[in-house]
Structure formats: C-alpha cells, structure tokens
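Workshop exercise sheet. Pairs work together: one partner reads the sequence aloud, the other fills in the structure field after running the prediction. Swap roles for the next sheet.
Pair: D.N. / O.F.
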Amino acid sequence: MSEQKVSPLAIQTGDYLLKFNGRTLVMGILNVTPDSFSDGGMFLEKDKAVARGIALANEGADIIDIGGESTRPGADPVSLQEELDRVIPVISELTNSIDVPISVDTYKSDVAREAISAGASMINDISGLRFDKEMANLAAEKEVPVVLMHIKGSPRDMQSDPQYDDMLEEIKNYLSESIDIGIQAGIDESKIIVDPGIGFGKKIEDNFELIKNLGFFRSLGHPILVGPSRKSFLWKTLSRAPSDTLEATTAAVTASILFGADIVRVHDVKEISGAIKIADLISNSPELN
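Structure field:
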C-alpha cells in the first residue's frame, strides 16, 4: 500500500528514548489557548491544562504537545509574553507530574528556549524553521528533536485559496530545504521529523491526496508525523462540528498509518488508541510492505 516506513529504532528526546519497535508513536495535543478551532478555552486555566496533560499521558500518549498560540486558519498571532504565560507554567508542572516527554508547539525561538528550560524536550515548529531564523540554532544548541512542518503562507492567510502547480513536489522541496536549514545549523539528522502539514495551506481535496501519498515523502529519509485530528477537511466533508469528528479522525489516522505515518498527532488519545494498534498490525504485515 505504501513505501516501506522509515523506522528508526528510537529517538532520544531529553531523558526519554522514544522507541518505535514497529509501532506508530502517538503525540497527544494540549492546546492552552482560548481560540483553537475545536477545544479553544477548554484548557486555558493552568490546573485544567495540567490535568488534561496527565490524562493524555495515562491514556497512552508517547509525547504531549503543548501549544499556547492557535494556528487555526485566520488566527492572529499572540505576543511573546502571552504565549509564555500560557505554556511555561503548564510545562513546569507537567514535567514533575508525568513520565512522558513534552513537546512545545511554537515557531518562536524565545518560547522554545523557555519551554526547554521548564522541561520540554522537543520542538514542533509549524514553519519548518522559517518564521524565526534562530529556531534552528536553538534546536541544535539544546540537542532536541524538532518537527519540521510544511505551511503555505501563515495561519492568517494560509487558507485563502491555496494553489499548487505540483503539491507533492512543492511540499517535499519545502521540507527538504527545512532539513538543510536544520542540518547546516547543527541539528543531528537523527532528531529531525517531517510533517507535510495537513490543513496548513491546503484545500479539502489536497489533504486526502496528502494522506494517500505519504510514501512520497519517504525519500526525505526522516520519520513522518501527521496531524489530521479534528481538521476542517474532515468536518467540512461531513458537515459536522469540529468536535463531532471522532470517527472521521479515526479513519484519517488509520489511513495515515497504512500509508506510512510514523507518528500521529491527535486530541483523543484514548478513543483512537485501539485503531492505531490495529492499523500497526496491518501495516506491519509483509503483504503491505
């Protein structure tokens, strides 16, 4: 069904060793924001955010990804201080409460630096090291894994009629350039993860094509992370609310694994974990490889 997965034995992230062992890793989403498209405001208070992070870890998340700025389509950026105020107290408390590595979802190097000091050990950069030129140097200095994502434009304008001549090739070239930026800054190749950026500057049909062609990005030589959870291409297709897309998200995650995802980023870890396990068993079948 897909090209053979890139299957590193493990990725070192801080004191943690993320072991693949033939299975898909699960990144649990924790949005500490008032305006994220499906859970905005639910975990804005520190105590609620910490409780949610603990729950995600207990439900089986391999990584907790904490973000303090919504990157939904049309979102306006928040100030550095506001983002710091949202995420740093949560990271500091969660670090002492769970035995799971924490990723910071930010494109600002100053936020990433403070987050790492507070206990985070991974950076998830939606810009692929493009929005803040210091991010690559920081990731290299701190020796942390970094997720390099493709985005067309910025969150504010990315869904304003995105157009591609050859979408797959353009995304691969963008990610390849991001990888080069990281390596030239000194980031260890073994700590680079790529994300084709579902929902970030893509039309509805583009996202389905991306999932179906994840194997196209195998030639980059890095694990692939995919984040289809509750995205608009699902709920718009079904004419539902963003929060009413569990079945659709489960289907998209399952397909992503079968077509080559190494890590999936989801809101509903407990509810989707069974589907991930079954998809892993199917994707590891010799007939599919």
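Discussion prompt: The first strand starts at residue 10 and ends at 13. What would you look at next?
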